[in-house]
């Protein structure tokens, strides 16, 4: 056979093969995919659960992919989360549909517009407060039907779930928030929920660091529980272990309140007689601590137990209030009795008036005494004597009384000063001891 004949045979064979591929290759799968979809969507039995006419239990495997923790709210005790939920179960009727149209496809896909003709598990979230499907462009749902009867269902959800919290150690607390999935109508005799055995990590988490929390761990389980009048139901639970970041609270709560307490101690270095300054400093410190404490509790639920932050804020308030009380005690100690002060003031007024009248009227001391205040008593008049130069002096016994009053007044100032000096050391020492106990105790709880 010549070269020309061989070349002709090869050319004819190539044209034949390409014609076969063009006729069967692209068109056959398209026709069978369309026929398969029409066959599946028109098959009414697929609208019922698998094994609907038998006593077999349908096992539904679940995978959960947590896209993000959006927020955790202590006041309402809930958290917002975005998840991708994937479910898998087997319905042998799907295999029959593949066989009936002689399809060679491994699977066929359905979007949200066609899924209404097929049964989907009636799952819900028992701890749900609010939920919604993502529906940008179209509903974020898809279903994949495999030749072997396996059905994969995936949907994307935005959930607000309740999360009961114990805030006794706030803000050193650790919380556990859960996602629970359960069938609403089908009991354990019809449906069993399981976490997927295919994936080693049935609950995946894309985000482990949150603004106020760190996700330190997660675990998942499947259980059964009984509902009154309804029966036993299978449900899944995924737990997320959260540890609060204390950095925010250090900047917003602890450091400002600490500085306010230190500021209240400035009054110990002020003069005892600086009444307006010390009162203003004490009152403003008390009001500031009270306002800050109210702001802290405004973002927390109204609970009856004492929280760690309450211990701190209450102690700071006690120290600030004690500084104000200390000033009141020092002020009382620094003052003599009012009668002694009035006696000394009256003596000095009489002396001054007598000298003025002496300059005006010579030795007429009597005229000077007439212009004294009417509030002076006869006993005070007897304590005054006039010397040869016309000056008014005190009698010896009156002079001793005056010196004794002055000494008593000096004692009060000394005692007040001693009190201030003692408080300069006492207050910081007690507050430092409190800080050591407070931080060591709660730090150990956080570590453990």
From TrEMBL:
Residues 36-245 form the Neurotransmitter-gated ion-channel ligand-binding domain. CDD domains: LGIC_ECD_GlyR (cd18991), LGIC_TM_anion (cd19049). Pfam families: Neur_chan_LBD (PF02931), Neur_chan_memb (PF02932). Its main location: membrane. Residues 1-19 form the signal peptide. It is a multi-pass membrane protein. Residues 253-361 form the Neurotransmitter-gated ion-channel transmembrane domain. It is found in: Postsynaptic cell membrane. It comes from the Eukaryota. InterPro entries: GABAA/Glycine_rcpt, Neur_chan_lig-bd, Neur_chan_lig-bd_sf, Neur_channel, Neuro-gated_channel_TM_sf, Neuro_actylchol_rec, Neurotrans-gated_channel_TM, Neurotransmitter_ion_chnl_CS. Keywords: Cell membrane, Chloride, Chloride channel, Disulfide bond, Glycoprotein, Ion channel, Ion transport, Membrane, Postsynaptic cell membrane, Signal, Synapse, Transmembrane, Transmembrane helix, Transport. One of its GO terms (molecular function) is chloride channel activity. GO terms for cellular component: chloride channel complex; postsynaptic membrane. The chain crosses the membrane at residues 253-272, 279-299, 311-333, 421-441. Belongs to the ligand-gated ion channel (TC 1.A.9) family. This is Glycine receptor subunit alphaZ1-like isoform X1. It comes from Crassostrea virginica. The gene is LOC111125046.
